[in-house]
Design goal:
This protein is of the alpha+beta class. It has six helices and eight strands, in the order H-H-E-E-E-E-E-E-E-E-H-H-H-H. It has one domain.
Length: about 180
């Protein structure tokens, strides 16, 4: 089974994906998906643009969707999508929101937060796949931590997209 960190590397650099999806499009965070009791990992691709000296980026609707196997990282799906598939209204070529990360964030802090979110996704996605009706205290703590970190790193305007493509996971984890 591949880790979420490995999945991110595939989403960013896989030759099959990048032969169709422009390098300028940013890959989302890994999106846990359940397919026939197996874990798959989805990614959407979107533009985030703020030419210097802009301090705020414009966020464009995602336009591509990829799904990879958590077993071996094989590309299962790569297709164009419309804004409505991500819970967004409006044209695909116009920004739907603006976002700026805090100016106090350093590259080291972002790397630490990113590593923690990916580690939480590793654990939570497996737990979700075999979800029981009651969460252990440890799972509850991980959900709370994920719900604090993930919205900060994923950019709040993008959360609607994550919830649209994997509503079961984000409802289970408590991200509203």
């Amino acid at each position: 089974m591949i880790t979420m960190k490995q999945a991110v590397q595939l989403a960013r650099f896989d030759k099959k994906i990048r032969s169709k999806v422009a390098l300028e499009l940013q890959a989302s965070w890994p999106v846990p998906l359940r397919a026939r009791a197996k874990l798959q990992i989805g990614f959407f691709y979107y533009a985030r643009w703020g030419p210097p000296p802009a301090q705020v980026d414009e966020l464009y609707p995602p336009s591509w969707w990829a799904v990879i196997s958590s077993d071996d990282g094989a590309l299962l799906t790569l297709e164009r999508r419309k804004p409505g598939d991500y819970g967004l209204a409006g044209p695909p070529d116009k920004p739907f929101a603006e976002h700026a990360f805090p100016s106090s964030w350093t590259p080291v802090l972002v790397r630490q937060m990113s590593d923690e979110v990916l580690s939480l996704l590793d654990t939570l996605s497996i737990t979700w796949l075999s979800a029981t009706t009651t969460d252990s205290p440890g799972v509850k703590v991980k959900k709370v931590r994920f719900n604090k970190l993930f919205p900060e790193l994923a950019a709040p305007p993008m959360l609607v997209c994550y919830r649209a493509v994997s509503p079961e996971f984000y409802e289970w984890v408590g991200l509203r």
